[in-house]
Give the backbone structure.
Amino acid sequence: MSFSSQAARASTDEGAVTDDERLASALEATASGDRSAFSTVYDMTAPRVLGLCRRILVDPHMSEEVAQEVFLEIWQTSSRFDAERGRGLTWILTMAHRRAIDRVRASQSSRDRDLRIGIRDFGEEVPGVESDVETSLEFERARAAMGRLTPLQREVLDLAYFGGLTQSEIAERLDTPIGTIKTRMRDALIRLRGLLGETR
Amino acid sequence: MTETSLDERPRLGVMLGARDDSEAAVFEEVAAIALAGLADTAVPSPGMRATIMNRIDTPAPRLAATVTPLHAVRSRRSLRPRRRRAPLFLAAAAAVVLIVGGVGASLTAHNAPAHEASRTLATVSAAHDVSRVTSTFSGGSAHVAVVSSASIGRSVAVITNAPDLTAGRTYELWFYRGGRATSAGTFTPSGSGRDVITLTGTYRTHDFVAATVEKTPAPDQPTTPPVFEVAT
């Protein structure tokens, strides 16, 4: 069984879970100009897209701006989504991450980003979330998997993914050889892949 | 440190240390599940959805007209045997220069009101025998989805980011069937970045659908290599 199908099957919570086939079908129909299908894509993914933007950008107004840009890009480029190459949610969240990080990098210097990000403890609640928080099985699995990484591995992933720092910037920030950073990051992702693939 | 633009940065998987595209896709999936999943979901404001829907319904300002060299298309229809490629058109490796034409009296411009074309699209999309084929053109920056139904007898082209044309030129659509091309109408880009065009005439199963750029008045037969061509 592929990693993708394992991850998709393991998610069962209605609110935050993506129905992979339904989302892929909606994206395919969106590519043909189906406005109703696009609404389905929005309804299925907007809370998670906005949540990711909020986590990276913090500012609620800026987060909604970027989330809007993400959905406009989905509308314009849904033809590029290929269900045979990955999940629709992955495609969408990768797009959201890229836009949010781009906004961060455009508005802040590297030093400012370092000071703002800090090193998060993944056991803490995320501050500033105003709306109902959906606790999904997928989220719980992700949190558990992250907890099994070493603190150094979590640190580099935090800086890279939520901080948008390059490996070079992380190496400079942590005063660590870039080769070590690369190995640490790659090992962490491979470890996560294995952990997520082990769960039901 | 040099800030790179959104389009210049490597893909996320590469930024996370992947060594090739395959591994990058895996890392991106891990990131989407394990890392993005750490971010709590947030309920959008009531106006966010309306704002997005309004923006997709509002045409963007028309871009300055440019003549853009087009590259031959590649069909994304998998499992389609190459032997079914339409012999009317040249091989896919040729670059295409835009030649623009107007609309002849015998041809009906199907840059129809958006709601009419959208209604036809919805009808065709709901047909039991709907066929969807996609392709790219203009070096990959433009995209076409051809949605067809033989039971309804209609084919609709949804075209994204079609390059603007200079004055006196138009895109002309064609059905190619049995060794012969039949004009299926003409259109000029609306400027919104997305055009929905109902092809003139009756669609039949396995028709090829293609587009060329012609000088006005639009001819009865193609005079230039195709901008795109797809086998339905």
Observations:
- The longest helix of chain B spans residues 21-35.
- Chain B is about 20% helix and 25% strand.
- The first strand of chain B starts at residue 70 and ends at 71.
- Chain B touches chain A through 54 residues (CB under 8 Å).
